[in-house]
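Subject: sequence -> structure tokens, single chain

Hey, anyone have a minute? Need the predicted structure for the following. Not urgent.
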Amino acid sequence: MINLNFTSPNQKAANQFQKNYRLVQSLVVFSVGALLLIVASLFASQMILGNKLKTITAETLVLKEQTENDNTLNLGQTIQNFNTLISNVAGIQSEYAKWSYILLEAGESVNDGIILTSFDIQKANSSFQFTGNANTRDSLLEFKNKLDASPYFENIESPISNLLSKENISFTLSGQIVLNPPID
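Reply:
Had a minute. Here:
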């Protein structure tokens, strides 16, 4: 079979130009379509990421507020615990008595002629009672005078029976304890 082509070379060039034009036009339309799809997908991605960023920002702010509230609550609880501790310490300090000073003062007041058999201190009513034996009345009076001179003992009472004998005296002395005296 024989193909005959009766088109002129100008017509052939025009037809070829139109073919190429349509090909370029199809490529341009396809490229524009592809670009529009890419732009649309990027815009959709931007919208999704923007919404996600807003959600994350909101959640972060909520967490930050909760953390600040927790810190405030923790700080308030810490302050309350500290105040309770200070109150407990103040209570303990207010009940503290310098027993070692009182015992030292009592021990220094005892002279050679005195033997103490008991020493009773009542913190509740701040009272004391000494019982013991004295070799002589003078040693007992000296012991009582030393207690009177002490800042830790006051209102010392000595029954008259303590002074009836001159030697080998069983005695009892009682009075008030000054727990925290002002010392000069």
